[in-house]
Amino acid sequence: MPTPDFILDLRAKVGSMPLWLSGATAVVLREGADGPEVLCVQRADNGSWTAICGVVDPGEDPHVTCVREAAEEAGVEIEVERLVLMAVTGTVTYPNADQTNYLDHTFRARWVSGEAHVADDESATVGWFAAHRLPEPMSEQMRTRIAVALYNPADVVLGAEAAQRLTSTRA
């Protein structure tokens, strides 16, 4: 899905100034022959691999964003189990110089149905990967989100630093 209309409308007014947006990440899991598998998509714009993620639309609950994005990006139905991490991203600067910071809500989710496939023009490839063999290139921030979802802490982890500490002690 291209840039949402509400962001285009904001950009028409503020230009490339930093925007504060809500994001949602769904770490979609299923059991595989070699342990848990993670659904990952390769971005068409820069080739990096990510879990299912997207911008929360105005008035949309972040967990609903995850369900919507899983269908839009990979053609699968998922069930969101729980929120595991909430953290602010660093400033993201896009090739057109637009800047954004996201309050990301990372959810642990399980695959329900559907054969994973490229379902939009934002993704180049979609696939299931053993949790201990995630594809490259993938940002450290995305690896941390996936690691927290796999760890499945009793309480929501607050902040990127806390997530890194939690996952580094498990390595």
UniProtKB/TrEMBL annotation:
InterPro entries: NUDIX_hydrolase-like_dom_sf (IPR015797), NUDIX_hydrolase_CS (IPR020084), NUDIX_hydrolase_dom (IPR000086)
UniProt keyword Hydrolase, yes or no: yes
Required co-factors: Mg(2+)
Gene3D superfamilies referenced in this protein's UniProt entry, alphabetically: Nucleoside Triphosphate Pyrophosphohydrolase
Keywords assigned by UniProt, alphabetized: Hydrolase
Stretches assigned to the Nudix hydrolase domain: 19-154
Pfam families in the cross-refs: NUDIX (PF00293)
Keyword Magnesium annotated: no
Domain of life from the UniProt record: Bacteria
Annotated protein name in UniProt: NUDIX domain-containing protein
